[in-house]
Amino acid sequence: MIHFHNVTKEYENQTALRNITFSVGKGEMVFITGHSGSGKTTLLKLIYLAEKIDKGSISVSGWELEKLAESGIPFLRRNIGIVFQDFKLLANRNVFENVALALRIRGMGEKEIKGKVFEALKTVYLRHKTDSYPKALSGGEQQKVVIARAIVADPTVLLADEPTGNLDPDTASGIIRTFKEINACGTTVLIATHNRELFRNTGRRVIKLDAGNLIGEELG
């Protein structure tokens, strides 16, 4: 599903990732961990082509990213859902509209949009918050809206960058349970986090980064 082979990414003579090689199979849920600055966010950005590699190769769902033309990037991203730490919700749109936005951009019909949005909100247990605005939601609820927005178009891959960084431990545990439920439905999930408590005793693969180097792998 996701394959990195000898991937290197540099910024102005500073190496963010160095000769990274790993694979994530279809339907897996994998954690990427390391201290701040270890390369976690850069790694995720390479997967959805917010950044491009300098050396090596990456394939995602059969797409060879280093060979992909600019015109093909939107089609790649339709297969990838992204959960950001800072939510990026539109304050002047209610929960339904925030989740529906990506589908409207694609020109989907209103009846289908309604069905998909309600299903996504049901998945994250926020169907009752359809008409609420972000400012009326807790931090955990806002993050669940972000997750609903990321899965509403049925992506094959879901990426999450420090998705619990601003949340208390109990709320964070609930968010991870939500990711597990999404993964159980067949979506490949990759979560970047510095918080070891999130993957402790999960039995999931944990890929460890340090200063841009892949230093090992373990089971959570």
How do the helices and strands follow one another from N- to C-terminus?
Answer: EEEHEEHEHHHEHEEE
Question: Helical content, roughly?
Answer: 25-40%
For the secondary structure, the number of strands is 10
Largest sheet entry? 6 strands, mixed
Spatial gap, N to C terminus: 21 Å
- Low-pLDDT regions: none
Q: Pairing-aware structural class of the strands and helices?
A: alpha/beta
* Oligomer type: single chain
The amount of beta strand, in percent, is: 25-35%
The helix count comes to 6
The averaged pLDDT comes out at 93
Topology:
Elements: E1 2-11, E2 14-24, E3 29-33, H1 40-47, E4 55-60, E5 63-64, H2 73-77, E6 80-83, H3 95-105, H4 110-123, H5 139-151, E7 157-161, H6 169-184, E8 188-193, E9 205-210, E10 213-219
Parallel strand pairs: 3-8, 3-9, 6-7, 7-8
Antiparallel strand pairs: 1-2, 1-4, 4-5, 9-10
Helix pairs in contact: 3-4, 3-5, 4-5
Keywords:
globular; 10 strands
Structural overview:
The chain is α/β, with parallel strands linked by helices and 220 residues long. It has six helices and ten strands, in the order βββαββαβαααβαβββ. Strands 6-7-8-3-9-10 form a six-stranded mixed β-sheet, sandwiched between helices. A four-stranded antiparallel β-sheet has the order 2-1-4-5, with helices on one face. Strand 4 (55-60) and strand 5 form a beta hairpin. It starts with a strand and ends with a strand.
